[in-house]
């Protein structure tokens, strides 16, 4: 091998209802990436127990993410769709990476600080160490690219740090087994087993905010269901939520500059732009000077047009759990085969007897 084979990996946690922010920020990108890339898309159910150990319906949540993938246009035959816990090699490599990573690296993760809050001593070890598992998710397939949002960039940097430390610590073992690739990190030549993973940031990612507070991200955990548009919402519910979305009394501006200090207006314009594959400038060229009483109905029509086919297909798939389970089972078998190839070589590199 003289270069790493390009491969895209990403995953979504099965926690609560998927919403418009998940679709525009992640899943729609996954669909676009599959056109020109080899892709692996994972329902990361092992991650879901780091913040909440006991779930009422984890199987249903796993199936709903898989259904959203397929309903949105991901092809599970050409690419791989599976749930993480079906591939034990993720957890095996995560343990090795726990031994590669340093405690100081984990303590710097801002997401751990945010999620653990003031009661850090009572947070689970899994919550502290889950960036190692995230690194393993990516590197057990030796993936080269990961689509990421702003909140995951730090974890991807940690993945690169873990890969680099492993590559440097075991460089002679990697070279002796002939399974590495010559790369340059900075100015240092390295014979690497794991690739330096690159983020995929395809244009400005839409940052979808709460419909009730334009300063907060749209979230599954928000206690108000009116704050988000769920992918399983019907047309009537979508219309109701957009009509009730918080706005201000002024007309829409004609220039993007006019959206500054108007977070709710900026959010709704951004949603319209993302759903219509247009820029905010183009949306304001059409609606600038108009009141929200004109803009909201147009946004309702667009949201229903884009989301209703996905919702219908998700509902159909969720009513046929045997079909969803077959997709995940097939994906799990194909993912395990790839992951085990990596782990056999990793065990050899480290020196474990097999």
From TrEMBL:
InterPro entries: aa-tRNA-synth_I_CS, aa-tRNA-synth_Ic, Rossmann-like_a/b/a_fold, Trp-tRNA-ligase, Trp-tRNA-ligase_bac-type, Trp-tRNA_synthetase. It is found in: Cytoplasm. GO terms for biological process: tryptophanyl-tRNA aminoacylation. L-tryptophan binds at residue 137. Gene3D superfamilies: HUPs (3.40.50.620), Tyrosyl-Transfer RNA Synthetase (1.10.240.10). GO terms for molecular function: ATP binding; tryptophan-tRNA ligase activity. A motif ('HIGH' region) lies at residues 14-22. CDD domains: TrpRS_core. One of its GO terms (cellular component) is cytosol. The keyword Lyase does not apply. It catalyses: tRNA(Trp) + L-tryptophan + ATP = L-tryptophyl-tRNA(Trp) + AMP + diphosphate + H(+). A motif ('KMSKS' region) lies at residues 217-221. Keywords: Aminoacyl-tRNA synthetase, ATP-binding, Cytoplasm, Ligase, Nucleotide-binding, Protein biosynthesis. It is an enzyme of class 6 (ligase). It holds the Pfam family tRNA-synt_1b. ATP binds at residues 13-15, 21-22, 149-151, 208, 217-221. Its EC number is 6.1.1.2. PANTHER family: TRYPTOPHAN--TRNA LIGASE, MITOCHONDRIAL. Catalyzes the attachment of tryptophan to tRNA(Trp). Belongs to the class-I aminoacyl-tRNA synthetase family. HAMAP family: Trp_tRNA_synth_B (MF_00140_B). Homodimer. This is Tryptophan--tRNA ligase.
């Amino acid at each position: 091998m003289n270069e790493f084979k390009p491969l895209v990996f990403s995953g979504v946690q099965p926690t609560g209802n998927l919403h418009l922010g998940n679709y525009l920020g992640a899943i729609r990108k996954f669909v676009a990436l599959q056109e020109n890339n080899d892709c692996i898309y994972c329902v990361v159910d092992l991650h879901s127990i780091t913040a909440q150990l006991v779930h009422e319906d984890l199987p249903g949540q796993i199936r709903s993410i898989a259904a959203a993938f397929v309903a949105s246009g991901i092809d599970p035959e050409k690419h791989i769709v599976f749930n993480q816990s079906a591939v034990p090699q993720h957890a095996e490599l995560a343990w090795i990476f726990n031994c590669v990573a340093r405690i100081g690296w984990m303590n710097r993760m801002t997401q751990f600080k945010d999620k653990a809050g003031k009661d850090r001593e009572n947070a689970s070890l899994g919550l502290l160490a889950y960036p190692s598992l995230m690194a393993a998710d990516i590197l057990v397939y030796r993936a080269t690219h990961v689509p990421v949002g702003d909140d995951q960039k730090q974890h991807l940097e940690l993945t690169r740090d873990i890969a680099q430390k492993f590559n440097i610590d075991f460089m002679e073992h990697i070279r002796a087994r002939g399974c590495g690739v010559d790369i340059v990190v900075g100015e240092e030549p390295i014979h690497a087993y794991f690739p330096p993973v690159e983020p995929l940031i395809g244009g400005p990612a839409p940052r979808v905010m709460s419909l009730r507070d334009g300063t907060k991200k749209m979230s599954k955990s928000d206690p108000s269901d009116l704050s988000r548009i769920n992918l399983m919402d019907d047309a009537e519910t979508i219309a109701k939520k957009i009509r009730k979305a918080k706005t201000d009394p002024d007309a829409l501006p004609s220039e993007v500059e006019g959206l500054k200090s108007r977070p709710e207006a900026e959010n709704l314009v951004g949603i319209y732009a993302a759903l219509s594959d247009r820029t905010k400038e183009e949306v304001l060229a059409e609606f600038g000077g108009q009141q929200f009483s004109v803009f909201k109905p147009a946004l309702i029509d667009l949201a229903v047009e884009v989301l209703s086919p996905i919702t219908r297909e998700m509902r159909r798939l969720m009513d046929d759990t045997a079909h969803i389970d077959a997709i995940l089972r097939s994906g799990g078998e194909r993912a395990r085969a790839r992951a085990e190839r990596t782990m056999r070589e990793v065990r050899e590199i480290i020196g474990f007897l097999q």
